[in-house]
Amino acid sequence: MHTKDFDYSLPKGLIAQTPLESRDDSRLLILDRSNGVIRHSRFRAVSSLLRPGDLLVFNDSRVIRARLNGGLADSKRDVELLLLRSHEPSRWWCIGKPSRKIVDGARIIFEGGLEGIVVEAADHGMRLIEFNDEKLIEIVGKIPLPPYIHETLNEVERYQTVYAKNLGSVAAPTAGLHFTTQLLEDLQVVGINMAFVTLHVGLDTFRPVDEHDPRNHKIHSEYWEISEETAKAINRAIREGRRIVAVGTTTVRTLEQVSRLMDAEGSDGVAAGSGWADIFIMPGHTFRLVDAMITNFHLPRSTLLMLVSAFAGGDQITKAYDEAIRLKYRFYSFGDAMLIF
Questions:
Q1: Pairing status of strand 193-199 against strand 55-59
Q2: Which CATH class is domain 67-140?
Q3: Are 98 and 81 a contacting pair, CB within 8 Å?
Q4: What residue ranges do the domains of the chain occupy?
Q5: CA triplet 231, 62, 152: central angle to 5 degrees?
Q6: SS3 content of the chain, % helix, strand, coil (to 5)
Q7: pLDDT tens digits for the chain (341 residues)?
Q8: 3-63+152-340 has which fold?
Q9: Is the pTM of this model over 0.90?
């Protein structure tokens, strides 16, 4: 297995720059992994494509205003921070620019009374910053859009799911962006069950794999939580033989991370809890909890493309992506979706 096996060429014009007027108007490519058959629909029809009794599991993490612009207290030099993940209360690992100026002990002044001190300077521009009041981040910061989006997002809530609740992500769990409040109601009417997990998405999940052998790639950890209510819903679905359908790769990572704990403890059931997901899902992985998934189209050479390839098979994902490109599907965060079962 080589990283180049997960590469593909995408015309830049297919990278979606803005969301559609209606979230559920996106196209939906349906891949049956049992036989490789591909069909096409619209996302709003997903309620007719799932089965009554399916348990649809969502990631309810909410994107924080993780892009901060400020100045160094001693020189007034402009700097930018991009928060990556919480280290502990009031301390965040960030990417700092220009990194050579953001040294140990440097004090950074932001608007609104927010200040930060560099506690540790690490490689690749990484900085551990301690903030005087992290609640001010949501007031001072800006929503960080992915680097391949060059258009201004006029309505920042379009980069949040309609059910987003728990603050902590620095990138949206984008498969969930297609759901509207009305669609969620329609799903319940036809007998689709719902449950929510939390996984706070970090930008490192989306960065390309640079290693020749992907098994040498270090994937960073992301914080997850599963409530007692969700654990019971999952266990009930398992007992009754109903499908668990994960909305997004972040939900897949959470569920499969939890399945590791089940194996380690010799348990047949999911327990409520929290922790750090460091699972790297690539071809050869045996999926224990996920029976189907809804996902967007992912970047070349990314861990997310490796994950969907593990689920559906690399050849079938290549075929599906080729078909999507031929039919001019929209790719990435604001793009179209896939249903893989």
A1: parallel
A2: mainly beta
A3: no
A4: 3-63+152-340, 67-140
A5: 150
A6: 30, 30, 40
A7: 899 999 999 999 999 999 999 999 999 999 999 999 999 999 999 999 999 999 999 999 999 999 999 999 999 899 999 998 888 889 999 999 999 999 999 999 999 999 999 999 998 789 999 999 999 999 999 999 998 999 999 999 999 999 999 999 999 999 999 999 999 999 999 999 999 999 999 876 667 898 999 999 988 889 999 999 999 999 999 999 999 999 999 999 999 999 999 988 888 899 999 999 999 999 999 999 999 999 999 999 999 999 999 999 999 999 999 999 999 999 999 999 999 99
A8: QueA-like (3.40.1780)
A9: yes
Residue 112 contacts residue 134 (beta carbons within 8 Å) = no
Q: Is 277 exposed, middle or buried (0-12, 13-18, 19+ CB in 10 A)?
A: buried
Which stretches of 5-90 are assigned E, i.e. beta strand?
27-32, 37-42, 55-59, 61-63, 67-72, 78-88
Q: Which residues are CB-neighbours of 70 under 8 A, at least 6 positions away?
A: 78, 79, 80, 81, 108, 109, 110, 111, 114, 116
Q: 167, 64 in Cβ contact below 8 A?
A: yes
Rounded-to-integer distance, Cα 309 and Cα 153, Å? 31
* 154-157 contact pairs (CB < 8 A, 24+): none
- Rounded to an integer, what distance in angstroms lies between the CA atom of residue 136 and that of residue 132? 9
What residue type is 103 in one-letter code? Answer: V
